[in-house]
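hey all, quick one before standup. I had two proteins in the batch that finished overnight and I want to keep them in one place so we stop losing track of which output belongs to which input. First protein below, input sequence then structure tokens straight from the run.
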Amino acid sequence: MSIAGLFVLVIGVILAIALHEIGHLVPAKLFGVKVPKYFIGFGPTLFSRTFRGTEYGVKAIPLGGFVQLSGMYAPAKDGVVLTNRKGQLTLAEEARRVSAEQIEPGEEEHAFYRLSVPKKLAVMFGGPFVNLLIALALSVVLLVGIGAPALLNQVGAIPACVSASECSDADPVTPAETAGLRPGDTILSWGGTPTQSWTDVQQAISSGTASPTEVTVDRDGDTISLTVTPVMLERPVVDEDGQVVLENGEELTQVVPYVGIAPAIGLERQSITAVPGYIGDMLWRTAGVIVRLPQQLWSLTTDFVTGQERDQSSIVGIIGVAQVAGQITGADIDGYSATEKTADLINLLIALNVSLFAFNMLPLLPLDGGHITGALYEGARRRWAAMRGRPDPGPADTARLMPLSYAVAGAFILMTVILIVVDIFNPITLY
């Protein structure tokens, strides 16, 4: 079963990468850009075929992919320094010349840098956008088709007694126990009020009194009527987030009807309108992880080097994600059904695609967000020149950012190595 989870994760990663690159490939070809290569993975080529001028293939290390767009960088303008103090070509000029070599004589119009700003944006945003679409589609399957974890209108547990602390022989049993409620009972109505959710049950109980109340439940397919007599107890006031409300530093309390039941937790199907909020929340949390990434990497590294126990909420790399997938499908826990495992796997794939979208939108080369930022700068510069009646300044010379591009790539490689090492030798354990 663990292997099944790993298999699903590997296929999900490969598809996410492949479709991401197709998101670049399709608009690039549509706009006439020459696309020599489309590959999944890095390293030695395992398989490739050429079709309509593009070599499609798979490489040995499936940790990414790429689409080669010819003419990414515009030639240097007059007066631009092409060599350093040692007489060697600058990184920017090297990038420009490699870019120019990909364009054969007569193919100049098929260079990427010649595209209009809107077309450049469409090509570069296409990849991350596909990952966002995948996340949205999977969220529909998860929320609408399977359901999200929720408190159900079903009895999950019944405390042994009314006492809020440890029970003794002198403590009375709960009203739920006295009435004959059992874990697994689905509460259909409370005091004549239909209850379709745990919120309905809570509201029906809190709006009642300590008088006998008729409760209808479904027990193993049979409809049963019971009579529950709540007791009035003093309980802390909690807010919408379940936090105890304080007043002048002390807990605020109130006297409320008490029955003594805890809800069962299960999957509850949602409306399709819940999908945007679900994705939005995941994007917000992913953005928070990105902002705290340097600090989290430092903590992860120091804990590993000093032999500290790993924080189970720390960030993970692709190896860690694969381990989590294996633990999900391999878990042997009562009540953790195949449906719930499937939901968790889908949620993992949603998080993966949201992360791919968010990371690629960072405004840093060589990420897609860096190219998008360059295109936006180019458009703003051209618009400003037009407003002032100046000549078109032409394409932005993004090749000058190559030193930054190498630095960012090096940082990501270092991060990947750290995460792989820590995930292998100090993995996260869910169960």
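OK second protein, same deal, sequence then tokens:
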Amino acid sequence: MKATIGNVIRLWFGADTPIRHHKIKLNPLLWAACQRVSQDFKAPSGALVKERYRKSDKTSFAKAVLEEMDQTEEPEESLQNAY
């Protein structure tokens, strides 16, 4: 599964189903990034629980997750390029 805004939204905000659990198992780095971001994320709308997030809140969350993934990947890539 590609790390896209839509996929992050479906993974994090989607209904709790066996298919979602399977996607979480197949994408542990993406899921871990979602969990890290969720600890400090403040919705732009001011919603306090994810069930009340607007579409723009979910999009902001997904963008934050993708940025988190980019930041965690960069050190590994720079180490690989050094050799």
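Flagging for whoever picks this up: The helical segments are 5-13, 18-26, 28-40, 55-82. The CA atoms of residues 9 and 62 lie 6 Å apart.
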